[in-house]
Design brief:
The complex is a heterodimer of chains A (233) and B (237).
Chain A: H1 6-15, E1 24-31, E2 37-38, E3 42-46, H2 61-69, H3 73-81, E4 85-88, E5 100-107, E6 113-121, E7 126-134, E8 140-150, E9 196-197, E10 226-232
Antiparallel strand pairs in A: 1-5, 1-10, 2-6, 3-4, 3-6, 6-7, 7-8, 8-9, 8-10
Chain B: H1 2-18, H2 26-37, E1 41-49, E2 60-64, H3 79-87, H4 91-96, E3 102-104, E4 114-121, E5 128-134, E6 141-149, E7 158-167, E8 202-203, E9 227-235
Antiparallel strand pairs in B: 1-4, 1-9, 2-3, 2-5, 5-6, 6-7, 7-8, 7-9
The chains are: A alpha+beta (233), B alpha+beta (237).
Chain lengths: 233, 237
């Protein structure tokens, strides 16, 4: 949840000349899964007072839009409003399973906390997340593993119906085209409306029916779902 | 401790020279001494199987340089990784790294048990350790530690890592009995056909089992999480 006010943001920005010197980093983001795509990624370096999401808290509307439909525009606006340095959509679209994308020579300014989010597709409201990780001051290469979260804003019915707008049920798309259709739905209501670790997709092996449009042999995952390699220069 | 080791080595050297007979001259004995002074770094590697019901195929343990990896997420599996991950046979993998310090496990590591092997090198550049094994009640799941740095270990020190679970990307996770080489299936191991979702190594998505789908020959207890084992490396000298 965003905890800022414009007053706090203004104070922080005025204080920045007194804070730590600017850091330049490389960030490599690897999708570790076999069958899950990442929608456009937002990587943003910000002041540690802020969080774009926190497990156990309710998702903001902006986070919901990212987790249900892959739309990071709202989160980018929030980041801009708090003086963050952002990398929006570094992969230039979907990041396929077992692929990586790089951000190089990223001058994060005086922002010392790193947040990374992207929707997991195909899921209803799953996202890969790193929340306000402290960028080390010492030069070196650091590895961070990221888990899959559930935004808690939509039932995981696992029906691929194009529903990507916030509040619209269903999964917007299955980019791999390797699932089914005509599912009756796994569950009709979200059981935990706070952000939580995603329980995983269920799927089935029925291409023309069953409870899920996802394939149980392809669209499950075990955490972690992503690996972040951060090089502080 | 160090003094004791040094003097022990000196005695061993003189005994070895004494045993050579009268043929050695001064220059030869100088060479011998130099060779004996080359330190050998010896490591004890213990792998524990932490799964409920996934026997590990015989271990392959390799020491290598920091620029080498036996597998990489996102790349196609080598023939050696494919063979091991589909059938449990690590011979092709070990052949491929024949010039490096290697150690092969003696046999299957059952759930809840462990195996210890020794591995050594004289080469300071060979300080990355890779250990890998197949989860035999799967299509092409393998576990391992991938190129971990052991160069900082002092004598008698240990480091521990958990074994992550990978999918070789070489065989579709059908979970049919005919395709599972372990006791849960008794089917085919290696097949040269690569018919997985993609011909790339990834983390393993986990098993479905009969609990969720009758098409699977596997039982609920064959499931595993992302961590399936533990490896402890101890420097011995």
């Amino acid at each position: 949840m965003l905890k800022s006010t414009s007053t706090i943001a203004a104070l922080l920005m005025s204080a920045t000349p007194l804070m730590a010197s600017a850091q330049v980093i490389d960030v490599k983001i690897t999708n570790l899964t076999q069958g899950i795509y990442f929608t456009p990624i937002l990587a943003t370096a910000h002041s540690p007072e802020y969080s774009l999401f926190q497990a156990g808290q309710m998702a903001s509307p902006e986070l919901q839009a990212m987790a249900e439909g892959g739309d990071i525009a709202g989160l980018v606006s929030i980041a801009d409003s708090i003086g963050a340095s952002s990398q929006a959509n570094p992969a230039g679209g979907l990041l396929a399973p077992a692929s990586y994308t790089m951000v190089t020579d990223w001058d994060t300014g005086t922002n010392t906390a790193l947040t990374v989010v992207a929707m997991l597709l195909p899921t209803n409201d799953g996202f890969v997340g790193l929340n306000s990780w402290t960028i080390p001051e010492q030069a070196g290469t650091y590895t961070v593993y990221l888990n899959g979260y559930d935004a808690g804003t939509e039932a995981n019915d696992e029906i691929v119906n194009g529903g990507g707008m916030p509040g619209a049920p269903g999964i917007p798309a299955n980019p791999g085209g390797n699932g089914g259709m005509g599912a009756t739905g796994v569950i009709a209501e979200e059981v935990n409306t706070m952000i939580h670790i995603h329980p995983g997709n269920v799927g089935d092996s029925d291409p023309e029916g069953g409870m899920s449009d996802l394939d149980s042999r392809i669209h499950r995952w075990l955490n972690p779902v992503a690996k972040l390699t951060v090089t502080v220069k | 401790m160090n003094n004791y080791l040094v003097s022990g080595l000196a005695i061993a050297t003189s005994l070895a020279l004494a045993g050579c007979g009268g043929s050695s001259n001064n220059s030869a004995s100088t060479q011998d001494t130099d060779m004996d002074m080359t330190p050998v770094y010896e490591y004890q590697v213990t792998v524990v199987n932490l799964t409920a019901a996934q026997p590990f195929s015989p271990l392959a343990v390799v020491l290598h340089g920091s620029d080498q990896m036996l597998w990489r997420i996102g790349e196609a599996a080598s023939d050696g990784i494919e063979m091991m991950a589909e059938s449990g046979d690590n011979s092709v993998l070990l052949d491929a790294v024949a010039g490096l310090p290697v150690s092969a496990g003696a046999g299957i590591i059952m759930p809840g048990t462990s195996e210890t092997v020794m591995i050594s090198t004289e080469d300071m550049a060979m300080m990355r350790l890779t250990a890998t094994t197949m989860l035999v009640n799967t299509n092409d799941a393998f576990a391992g530690v991938n190129s971990v740095d052991i160069s900082a270990l002092a004598n008698n020190e240990s480091m521990t890592w958990y074994l992550n679970t990978y999918d070789a990307g070489t065989e579709f996770n059908s979970e049919t009995a005919a395709s599972i080489p372990g006791p849960a299936g008794g089917g085919e191991g290696f097949s040269a056909i690569r018919d997985d979702v993609m011909n790339k190594i990834s983390r393993h998505p986990g098993l479905v089992t009969q609990a969720d789908d009758s098409m699977s020959a596997l039982s609920p207890w064959h499931r595993f999480d992302s961590i399936v084992g533990k490896v402890t490396v101890t420097r011995m000298n």
